[in-house]
Amino acid sequence: SGHGLFELEARYRKDGSPSGQVGYVFPAAGGDHYVVQSTGWQGGGLDIPGAHATIAGTCDVVRIDARGHATTVGTGIRFRLDVTDNGRSDTFALSVYTPEGMLFHRVGTPREPVAPGGGQVVVHR
């Protein structure tokens, strides 16, 4: 269908440090899929101003071919996710960068986010 599957759970711990995870699965050519899974907060963090949240850190990317075989594309890759809780018109934007800083995959942009195809974004501090 060309659509990805996005999951997010992030919060501040009592000590003020960020906690949680981000996951995104999207289709590639030939029936393959890429899986992006957050692995840490190094060089990133969590910022929640109002109904908007920005989550950034490191992730691993795995390619799963049409036969179900998984190949690691990269580890310690950087990502940034922006989500906004707009009631019934929530939005998100995800950017994933190679270790060299090149854009690997993008869905929307922080200035022009996209609406999820289902589900709901809930942001609260």
Helix content: under 10%
**Given the C-alpha coordinates, what overall shape results?**
globular
Give me the secondary-structure category: mainly beta
> What's the N-to-C terminus distance?
34 Å
Largest sheet: 7 strands, antiparallel
Indicate the low-confidence ranges by residue numbers.
none
By DSSP (H or I, 4+ residues per run), the number of helices equals 0
Instruction: Report the sheet-strand fraction.
Output: over 45%
How are helices and strands ordered from N to C?
Answer: EEEEEEE
Mean pLDDT across all amino acids: 88
Alpha-carbon Rg, integer? 15 Å
Strand order of the largest sheet: 1-2-3-4-5-6-7
By DSSP, the count of extended strands is 7
Characterization of this structure:
The protein has strands at 5-12, 18-27, 33-47, 52-64, 70-84, 91-97, 103-107. The chain is mainly β. It has a seven-stranded antiparallel sheet, with no helix packed on it. A hairpin with a 5-residue loop joins strand 4 (52-64) and strand 5 (70-84).
